[in-house]
Amino acid sequence: MSSASKTPSFVPADPATLHPETRLVHGGTLRSGFGETSEALFLTQGFVYESAQSCEARFKNEEPGFVYSRYANPTTEMFEQRMALLEGAEAARATASGMAAVQAALICQLKAGDHVLAAHALFGSSRWILDEFLPRFGVDVTLVNGTDIEAWRKGIRPNTRAVLLESPTNPTLDIIDIGAVAEIARGVGATVIVDNVFATPLLQHPLKLGADVVVYSTTKHVDGQGRCLGGIILTSRAFMDEHLQTYLRQTGPSISPFNAWVQLKGLETLGLRVDRMQASAARIADTLAANPKVARALYPFRDDHPQVELARRQMSGGGTLVTFSVKGGKEAAFRFMNALRVIRISNNLGDAKSLITHPATTTHQRFTPEARAEMGIDDGLLRLSVGLEHPDDLIADLEQALTHA
What we know:
Blueprint: H1 20-26, H2 52-59, H3 74-87, E1 91-95, H4 98-107, E2 115-119, H5 124-133, E3 140-144, H6 149-155, E4 160-166, H7 178-186, E5 191-195, H8 200-203, H9 206-209, E6 213-217, H10 219-223, E7 231-235, H11 237-251, H12 257-267, H13 270-289, E8 294-298, H14 308-314, E9 321-326, H15 329-339, E10 344-345, E11 355-357, H16 369-374, E12 381-385, H17 391-402
Parallel strand pairs: 2-3, 2-4, 4-5, 5-6, 10-11
Antiparallel strand pairs: 1-7, 6-7, 8-9, 9-12, 11-12
Helix pairs in contact: 1-3, 3-12, 13-17, 15-17
């Protein structure tokens, strides 16, 4: 290039003017002086300073810059900013896993004597935190039927500090009225935390519905290809500054920069994958519902779903999960699973590969049969995470396997 020529200065578009699909590709991008096309992976533990004075200023938060990758990292920050733009959040912090995000969002604001109100239909590890972990430290917990708004009203207390729910729930795909729960929680100043992993950041926006904090296992749809663990917490700047930032900095449930980079790249195709997966899921739900060996099939956008009107009001799509019960209980469910030839048995979800699990013996196995029944989990219940395979192949696989049930 001639020394006389000049490269025009690139002015990026305002993210607020861009569609979600464009934010998924360009949001939060930070380029080094090399001008790389793909976001750089800063696989470093620490950072160096121009002087001792600069080092002191950074530790006092008087000078911008990175200090230690447990606190912040350029690659991790790009991932956080892209997720915040997608979610419409003021602040985001990535964690090592989805459960690290759930635990941090709760613990960072709780103390002995506080009360947590939650829906009883939750992922098994989330229930463990509520049932066994928090009570060790003097935090009281009440569980309610999440679909019953009156139960939320009765369960709230003056000392309720946090409210936790999933919608759709794992694994029964119950839909909870996030706005109604948020209104109840606001009456006592409680923080509403929504695990939005089943809906994905594309199909439901809890912050717009009144939630204060949204958490994800980014292991699921965000990575979506069975590679890396990760989680993220999205919230207001005030909650981040008052509760979360110091907790994360001092306790260290930070995501690896490598995992953040993998999931940053995964975001580029998230919209394409979710669109394809949920289109297939809707077809599969209809097929399963019509099969005489299936006792019930659950999908949020099917007309026979108990909360279908609420689902269509809160969500822009039915999601990528289908839950169904095989007649004959556990033995029939196991025969069915073992006969599958395309769909694989795994406890993960949101993957490019279709995966199926039996919640009663995996994700919710520690609960008593009575507790599982309360959550709607019978011994024939199966959770199918629909992948990117051709829907005709998936339907054929399900139908041939059902002949063995």
